[in-house]
Amino acid sequence: MTAFCAALRDTRLLPLTLIELAAAAVGSVYREVADAHCGDQPCPCGWHPRLQADLEALQAAIALSATPILQGDLVRMPVLGRA
Ligand SMILES: [Zn+2]
Asked: 45 C-alpha vs ligand 1 centroid, how far in Å?
C-alpha cells in the first residue's frame, strides 16, 4: 500500500490505471515464465503452461483477493500477534 500510494503521488495516475499496470506486469511475468517452459530447451521442472486454464486461475485469484472480506470470515482475517 505504501508503494502504491507513492506511485499514485509520483505519477498522478488514476488508481485503476495503476492497478491495470500492475495486472499487465503480472501478465508479462506469466508470459515470460510460460515461454521459459516451451520451446527447444524448456525448464526441466515439468510444468507445462495451459493458457486458458492458467488465465482462469489468475483471474480467480484476483477476484478472490479483490472481494471485500466479510466480518467473521476467519479464513481471510489477517493474523495479529502470536498465540
Ligand atoms: Zn520450470
From this structure: 4
67: left (phi over 0), alpha (psi -120 to 50) or beta: beta
The CA 76 to ligand 1 mean position distance, Å, reads 30
How does pLDDT run across 45-82, given as a tens digit for each residue?
999 999 999 999 999 999 999 998 877 777 777 788 88
* 20, 7 Cβ separation under 8 angstroms: no
Alpha-helical runs (H) found in the chain? 2-11, 15-36, 51-66
Q: How far is the CA of 33 from the centre of ligand 1 (A)?
A: 8
